[in-house]
Specification:
Elements: H1 4-14, H2 18-25, H3 29-37, H4 39-44, H5 47-58, E1 62-65, E2 76-79
Antiparallel strand pairs: 1-2
Helix pairs in contact: 2-3
């Protein structure tokens, strides 16, 4: 499950604005802003919108890591700046 914190961290890795992402994936900046800032809104967001956000970042070298119930580690991400999704 993607988290708002992961979205913020991924955006920070890419040094890209909310507006740039929203324009590229075809959603309003306000929608992106709200999803990035509120876990509850993210949980209620349209699945297609979440998929667009996830695909945007994965296509730029971000790998999202789910939280682990086994060892208690939290959700995170890895950034591979020279790797694109198709590589």
């Amino acid at each position: 499950m993607l988290t708002s914190s992961q979205i913020r961290a991924a955006r920070g890795c890419l040094n890209i604005s909310q507006l740039e992402i929203a324009k590229e994936i075809g959603i309003s900046m306000n929608t992106f802003y709200r999803i990035e800032g509120d876990e509850e809104l993210l949980a209620r967001a349209n699945l297609a919108t979440i998929k667009k956000i996830k695909n945007f970042f994965e296509g730029r070298g971000i790998k999202f890591i789910a939280a682990s119930e086994e060892d208690g580690s939290g959700a995170g991400l890895r950034y591979f700046p020279n790797k694109k999704k198709d590589d």
